[in-house]
């Protein structure tokens, strides 16, 4: 009679190396997606800031030109 005290590697569930690799892969993917989201939000906020700065410069230039024309 043979006792099944040591399950095969395939039957160990969460202890298998393939499962560990899958977990590592999922963590890497989550980090990559998280970093890409952070990067895109920084780029978007930078573009928005540039747009606001450009608008402020255009308005101030228009005001200066208007003052020069009137005087």
Describe the structure.
The protein is mainly α and about 70 residues long. The chain contains 1 helix and no strands. It has one helix spanning about 15-70. The mean pLDDT is about 75.
Question: What descriptors fit this protein?
Answer:
single chain; 71 residues
On the 0-100 scale, what is the average pLDDT? Answer: 76
Query: Based on helices, strands and strand pairing, what is the structural class?
Result: mainly alpha
User: Separation of termini?
Assistant: 109 Å
Total of DSSP H or I helical runs spanning 4+ residues? 1
Indicate the overall shape: rod-shaped
For the secondary structure, the number of strands is 0
Q: Could you spell the SSE succession in H and E letters?
A: H
Measured as a percent range, the helix fraction is over 70%
Strand content: under 5%
- Model regions low in confidence, pLDDT < 50 over at least 5 residues: none
Describe the biggest sheet? none
Work out the radius of gyration.
30 Å
């Amino acid at each position: 009679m043979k006792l099944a005290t040591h399950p095969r590697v395939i039957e160990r569930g969460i202890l298998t190396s393939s499962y560990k690799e899958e977990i590592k892969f999922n963590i890497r993917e989550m980090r990559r997606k998280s970093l890409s989201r952070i990067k895109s939000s920084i780029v978007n906020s930078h573009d928005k800031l540039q747009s606001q700065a450009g608008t402020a410069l255009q308005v101030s230039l228009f005001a200066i030109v208007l003052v020069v024309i009137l005087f």
